[in-house]
Amino acid sequence: MLEKCQNAKERWGGVSNIIDNWLEARQKLISQFVALPSTEVKNLESKIGQFCTAMMDYLSSGHFEVYEQLLREGSEYDDGGLEKAQKLFPLIQPTTDAALDFNDAYSSFSSPTVQQIREFSFQLSTLGENIEERFTLEDQLIEVLHTAHRDIVMSAEEEQV
């Protein structure tokens, strides 16, 4: 998962500040996710809370900033990417729902029992699969809505500076 994130940063980094910041948040989210299984039980509540906050921030940024910018670009350039993107959004929604469910269940996880920790481990694994699927779909979204006309977008951003 971390390697795929690095590849995304290399591929689209520097094209748009919003996408750069979002990919940086993705990398931090992955780092927190990967560290959770090895967290000591006494620190688990705090680490899960931090992870859930980062995950909600990432989801919000995607839905309310990045996706909107990508859709705006797709509309402006009308290069067929918008139609392809419309097929991806319904596939992203289940991953959002899974992340929200995880957040609801574990953001205030305190004094867990052994059974709760086992269940948490299972749910964390399931969440990891969903997050990986989401990143793949988001990368496809960036590809169809941004990459086709990124030279034009980069020129426009440079003119604004």
Can you walk me through this structure?
Helix 1 (2-12) runs antiparallel to helix 2 (17-35), helix 3 (41-77) runs antiparallel to helix 4 (81-106) and helix 3 runs parallel beside helix 5. It contains six helices and no strands. The radius of gyration is 17 Å and the shape is elongated. By secondary structure, the chain is an all-alpha fold. The model is unreliable at 9-14 (pLDDT under 50).
Concise overview:
This protein is mainly α. It contains 6 helices and no strands. Helix 1 packs antiparallel against helix 2 and helix 2 runs antiparallel to helix 3.
**Which sheet architecture does the biggest sheet show?**
none
Gyration radius over CA: 17 Å
Distance between the termini: 34 Å
Strand content: under 5%
Average pLDDT works out at 84
Binned, the helix content reads over 70%
Oligomer description = single chain
Sketch the topology as an H/E string, one letter per element.
Answer: HHHHHH
Unreliable spans are 9-14
Number of strands: 0
| Computed structural class | mainly alpha
How many helices? The count is 6
Shape: elongated
List its traits.
single chain, 161 residues, mainly alpha
Lay out the secondary structure.
Blueprint: H1 2-12, H2 17-35, H3 41-77, H4 81-106, H5 114-145, H6 150-160
Helix pairs in contact: 1-2, 2-3, 3-4, 3-5, 4-5
